[in-house]
Amino acid sequence: MTSGGGALLSVRGLRCGYGRGDVIQDIDLDVEAGETVCLIGPNGAGKSTLIKAVAGLVRARAGSVRFDGRDITAERTDQRVEAGMALVPEGRGLLTTLTVEENLMMGAYVRRKELDIPAEMERVTTLFPVLRERREQVASTLSGGEQQQLAIARALMSRPRLLILDEPSFGVAPLVVAAIFRTIRELGEAGTTILLVEQNARMALRVAQRGYVIESGRCVLGGATAELRESPIVRDVYLGAAA
Question: 1-84+161-243 has which CATH code?
Answer without folding.
Answer: 3.40.50.300
